[in-house]
Amino acid sequence: MKSALIIRHTPYEGIAGFREPVEAAGYEIDRVDVTDPAFPHIDFDEPDLVVLMGGPMGVYETDAHPWIACEVVRLARRVMLDRPTLGVCLGAQIIAAAMGARVYPGPVKEVGFAPVRINPNGLNSPLRHIEDVSVLHWHGDTFDLPDGVELLASTDRYSHQAFRRGDNILALQCHAEMGEDGRFEAWLENEAYVEEAGMSVARMREDHAALGSAAVAAGRRMITDWLGRLDA
Questions:
Q1: Which of 45, 51, 89, 155 has the smallest CB count inside 10 Å?
Q2: Prediction pTM value
Q3: pLDDT above 70: percentage of residues in the chain
Q4: Please, what is the average pLDDT of the chain?
Q5: What architecture (CATH level 2) is domain 2-229?
Q6: Using DSSP, how many helices (H) and how many strands (E) does the chain show?
Q7: Helix H segments across 62-114?
């Protein structure tokens, strides 16, 4: 079987709804937490697929999280080799950093279920499957667009929501994997973050119940499409 390595930056942000399409595409999934003593020694070049998930830290917080610099360096080599790589939220920001782009705090917190605006490049990409679908946003950082990539989607608050380089490298700010995972309750424990974004925990729970399943279904279609295009 093909191998997929899921890099988890916090225990409550795993592969979630993306597990189904990854396994259906014939990948055997392994997972590593960045706090695992083995993490600094993992060869990022080896897996057929690497998926970098989200987390509450910023890519620039290297003093508080020394593993970030190590992860960015190893990911830069994988990206240089054009090995299939998917990044979600923090994972997308780490991909941007690995490609030499600046990552920094954004103008506002963007939290809640809402659609992204898919541009013409995005409509010719796997992101077409999430067009007009309210997916989960949960971030306060952004990045400059790396050289040599295609911007795929934006929102009014954040112009850089998704990009790709060819078929093998895909970076997503939004969480189209989330909507049916009980670990979402752990996200809501950060009530101050939710309120700073102009939302409430009660509203987030309501939207999760009403919109989550459709978001995950669309996200799975997107990942199925992307995996089918890989030039592994």
A1: 45
A2: 0.97
A3: 100
A4: 97
A5: 3-Layer(aba) Sandwich (3.40)
A6: 7, 10
A7: 67-80, 90-98
